[in-house]
Input
Amino acid sequence: MDFTQVSMKWITRSNVKVDRVACPWLIRRFIDVNAEFLFVPEAQLLETARREEAVPFDATRLPEVKLNHRGERCTFEAILEDYKLRDPALHRLALIVRGADVKGQEHVSPESFGLRAIAEGFAASGISDEERLTREFPVLTHCTNTLVNSWRNGRSFDFSFLD
Output
């Protein structure tokens, strides 16, 4: 991955929770290390995205937004697909994020309930969206590291869907 590219602006709805925290984490770690994130009310998202030349993501009521939920899948999964990120640990994390974020998808991963509780706790704390990213990124990093270590130690995950 070439992290020397010019950093981009990314924009999403304010009051971030699960997917809108996980996506910036994914973007900073694997797509754009210097990414700048903007958080605005949904009604201002498209106009601000045009004005700031920012990539919009996770705005499910706005069909113009390409990086969005796709059927039962969350935006984190759309980013994995569009940016061709194939790491098995990231795809396992995507299921956790989907189960935590998408109502009716809780069954896809037992860890989802914990991630949802963490996100709701940070949301209830009243801290800014930027501070939520700062505080929640280490949680996602630890989850991914745990998944990588489990996979390396012989725990198998079914990733046939990547083929």
Summary: The radius of gyration is 15 Å. The helical segments are 19-30, 45-52, 75-82, 88-101, 112-124, 129-152. Confidence is low (pLDDT under 50) at residues 158-163.
